[in-house]
């Protein structure tokens, strides 16, 4: 049976790799790399640098997979994501079948942590559920953007005895913000924090762990314009933006 590793590689700094991840890299015969176009060449470069550092023997093969296009503004978000995952599953399954022998180990290097807002694990489960492809699957946890955000701002994510809610920009914009506890927001393409009217502090970061890292914090009503301007400048410069933030209610 072929072995497949999903290895969390952190969010931009090659030093984010854990010892477990480095050890796992030594087993890999085939790295499956998702090609996301020239705008995200920096992401592919990080994976290349990780392999260069930790597999100097170069005793592995690399298989590039074309990532199917997806509708970013669908009428039915869940249906659109489901269709996209089905297309991805077909691409992944064909690549694994063609490239990975029964006695070999393959790997996907997953941005951040494979269990947090990443579709790779879900797609591999979808593939194995069909019964057409048997895989010995192992997941190697990675340092997430949430951990890096807190470290860079030198804050604890949770306050004593309180909860932390992790959500998306889409959910925040829909008004789905909990009454108690603080909120970490990921995958926000529309600056959903501008819809928040409660008195909160924001701890914002973009390109965390990379040489382009950006950090802004303060009362939301005071720094909202600065964050929006900085996001726009980052996108214009790099062709993409990857940001995350914590909203923390202020005492009234």
Helix and strand topology:
Blueprint: E1 2-8, H1 19-25, E2 30-35, H2 41-54, E3 61-66, H3 77-99, E4 105-110, H4 120-129, E5 135-140, H5 145-153, E6 164-168, H6 169-173, E7 182-186, E8 200-206, E9 214-219, H7 220-238, E10 243-249
Parallel strand pairs: 1-4, 1-5, 2-3, 2-4, 6-7
Antiparallel strand pairs: 7-10, 8-9, 8-10
Helix pairs in contact: 3-4
Structure characterization notes:
- The chain is α/β, with parallel strands linked by helices and 252 residues long.
- The chain is built from seven helices and ten strands.
- It has helices spanning 19-25, 41-54, 77-99, 120-129, 145-153, 169-173, 220-238, and strands at residues 2-8, 30-35, 61-66, 105-110, 135-140, 164-168, 182-186, 200-206, 214-219, 243-249.
- A hairpin with a 7-residue loop joins strand 8 and strand 9.
- Helix 3 crosses helix 4 (120-129).
- The model has no long low-confidence stretch (mean pLDDT 91).
Q: What is the CATH topology assignment of the largest domain?
A: Cobalt-precorrin-4 Transmethylase, domain 1
Q: What structural class should be given to the helix and strand makeup?
A: alpha/beta
The CATH architecture of the largest domain is 3-Layer(aba) Sandwich
The shape is: globular
The level of helicity is 25-40%
At the fourth CATH level, what is the homologous superfamily of the largest domain?
Answer: Tetrapyrrole methylase, N-terminal domain
CATH level 1 class label of the largest domain: Alpha Beta
The main β sheet shows up as: 5 strands, parallel
Say how many strands there are: 10
- Mean pLDDT, to the nearest integer, reads 91
User: How are helices and strands ordered from N to C?
Assistant: EHEHEHEHEHEHEEEHE
**Strand order of the biggest β-sheet:** 3-2-4-1-5
Alpha-carbon distance between the two ends: 59 Å
Low-confidence stretches: none
Provide the gyration radius in Å: 19 Å
Helix count?
7
How many domain units?
2
Q: What fraction strand?
A: 15-25%
């Amino acid at each position: 049976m072929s072995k497949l590793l999903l290895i969390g590689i952190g969010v931009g700094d090659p030093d984010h790799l854990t010892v477990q991840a480095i050890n796992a890299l030594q087993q890999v015969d085939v790295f499956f790399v998702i090609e996301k176009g020239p705008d995200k060449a920096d992401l592919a470069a990080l994976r290349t640098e990780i392999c260069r550092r930790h597999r100097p023997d170069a005793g592995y093969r690399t298989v590039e997979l074309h990532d199917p296009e997806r509708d970013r503004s669908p009428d039915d978000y869940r249906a659109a994501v489901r269709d996209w995952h089905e297309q991805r599953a077909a691409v992944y399954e064909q690549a694994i079948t063609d490239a990975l022998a029964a006695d070999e180990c393959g790997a996907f290097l997953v941005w951040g942590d494979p269990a947090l807002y990443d579709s790779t694990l879900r797609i591999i489960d979808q593939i194995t559920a069909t019964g057409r492809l048997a895989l010995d699957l192992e997941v190697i946890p990675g340092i997430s953007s949430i951990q890096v955000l807190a470290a860079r701002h030198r804050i604890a994510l949770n306050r004593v005895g309180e909860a932390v809610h992790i959500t998306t920009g889409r959910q925040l914009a829909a008004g789905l913000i909990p009454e108690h506890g603080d909120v970490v927001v990921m995958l926000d393409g529309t600056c959903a924090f501008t819809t928040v009217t409660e008195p909160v502090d924001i701890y914002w970061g973009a390109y965390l762990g990379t040489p382009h890292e950006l950090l802004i914090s303060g009362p939301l009503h005071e720094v909202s314009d600065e964050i929006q301007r900085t996001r726009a400048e980052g996108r214009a410069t790099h062709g993409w933006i990857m940001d995350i933030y914590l909203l923390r209610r202020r005492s009234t």
